[in-house]
Amino acid sequence: MQPFEKRNKSVEDAAIRLVETIPRIMGLMRDEIRKHRPTGLSEAQFRVLVFLGRADGISLSELADDLGTGLPTVSKLIDGLVTRNLVNREVCPEDRRRVRLALTKVGKEILHNVMEYAKGGVVRMLADLSAEETSVVSRALIILEEALENRKTQL
Which residues form the domain of 103? Predict the structure, then answer.
C-alpha cells in the first residue's frame, strides 16, 4: 500500500487529467453531434433528448434540476419536442399533479442515430491506439463508472 501522501498525490493527478481531458472529449462529441443532428433541433433540445434517453419517465421538475435550468425554460423545450413528436408528456396515474416525460419512437431513433455519429468521432480518435492502450482506456472507464455508481448509492 502506498503512503497516504503518495496516494493522495496520484488521486490529485488523476483528477487533474480527468478535468482537463473530459471537456476535450465532450468537444469532439459535440462537434460530431452538431454536424449530424436534425435541422431545427437546437443543442438544448438535443441535450433534453440525451437526458431522457437515460432517464425515461422523469418529471419536468426533475429534468429542470438535472439540466440546471428553470421550469419555464425546460417546459418550453419540452413543448417544442412534443410538437415535433420526439417526446411524450403524460400525467402520472399515481399523482395527477406530476407529468412524466418519455422519448417517442421517433425521438429514440433520432437520438440513436446522432449518438452513433458521436461514437464514430470517438472511434476515429481511439483508432490510433494500440490494442493494449484501448484495453487500458476501457478498463479505466469501467472503474470510473463503478466509482460514479458507488457515489450515487452513497448520496
Answer: 8-154
Q: How many Å apart are CA 73 and CA 16, to the nearest integer? A: 33
Q: Which of 107, 99, 93 is nearest to 74 (CA)?
A: 99
Q: Could you tell me if residue 2 is inside a domain?
A: no
Task: Write the pLDDT tens digit of every residue in 87-143.
Answer: 999 887 877 778 889 999 999 999 998 888 888 889 999 999 999 999 999 999 999
In a domain, 111, yes or no: yes
Q: How far apart are CA 12 and CA 8, in angstroms?
A: 6
Domain containing residue 46: CATH number: 1.10.10.10
Burial class (CB in 10 A: 0-12, 13-18, 19+), 128: exposed
| Cell digits of residue 96 | 395527477
Angle, helix 43-54 to helix 71-83, in steps of 10 degrees: 90
In-domain check, residue 1 = no
Cα of 42 vs its chain's centroid, Å: 16
Q: Tell me: the pLDDT tens digits for 49-72? A: 989 998 888 888 899 998 889 999
Count of domains for the chain: 1
